[in-house]
Design goal:
396 residues; globular; single chain; 17 helices; alpha/beta; 16 strands; 9-stranded mixed beta sheet; pyruvate-formate lyase- activating enzyme
Amino acid sequence: MPNIDQVLKPLAVYIHWPFCKSKCPYCDFNSHVRDRVEQDRWKAALLRELDSMAAHIKGRRVSSIFFGGGTPSLMPPDTAQALIERVYALLPTDDNMEITLEANPTSVETGTFKDFKKAGINRVSLGVQSLQAKELAFLGREHSVGEALAAIDLARTTFDRYSFDLIYARPGQTLATWETELTEALRYVDGHMSLYQLTIEENTAFHHAYAKGGFTLPNEEEAEGLYRLTEELMAARGLLAYEVSNYAKPGQESRHNLAYWKGYDYIGVGPGAHGRITMDATDEDSLSTRIATQTLKSPERWLEQVERAGHAADVWQKVEPEEEIEERLMMGLRLRAGISYDMFEEQTGFDLRPFINQSRQAFYVHKGLLADDPDRLRTTLNGRLVLGTLTADLLT
């Protein structure tokens, strides 16, 4: 049986800071606006839950820490430093551990960049979303185009690595206007960029406005054209789509996010944080149970529960084989590299092939939606355009 540490590493650590200055109309993340945050209580609680989650890992090596949110750049840098130092104290770590902070490009947040660098952050991901003033207003962003460009420049000179996000397929966007905007944005890109098509999520301000006809989005054919253009422009600059919405030069991929997509383990700390933890093997035939975790989403309830019990895990349950296979398929097919059959079996103890509808797989290979590859299951560009349908159909 393979050694569990060799097979499942890297281990990723996700830390969720749930607070924002305002709620963006498209956002369905677990983010909350509060007039006041008791910083000392939150620092102590995050450290305590980190201790609790790490106790289940038993020496696994950490390759990445990711501060997400919410808006974690609103967190005091000394809180981030304390959490980073605690990870080093609790668990073995890779020499070149990736430590990412999500940030918005407002002057308030960028003013703390040097302090976050001193705290141990070596990669920043900026939520720029657009480089057009009108579109920033539509998206509910609080920064200006000038602030965005200044933040990118400051990130470039402060951190070892940086990335920024844009949202496209917005109302009224055409191939020509997107080409102009993306071409301009590429002037400021180094090794990584995330490009997300605008989607309407339930329980968001956009969901209500869209339902009432407040705006329309590009239709399916137009959205496909925008995606193909994006791939073309990014590839021309040496930024390959290693995942559906993420582009990088070789070696500059987000190691933390790859841990999710490749099915590695991760622990989640903070309100609403998810985790996947594989416990030690119990016999010689397979790796032991994989546990799905999720903490309480409400910041107030989470804080009270951690202070009372040391953690706020609301979900702690075995991931059944069928669920594991479906989850890994959904995540792995997002990657350009797809899913290695050998690695899948090493990680799960199962051969993926018998769970795949072979006739449907052959059909999609013939249609050019899946690659004809004996070693791995992977989509083509055309396949990634219909990923949801494709994934569901392969399991029926």
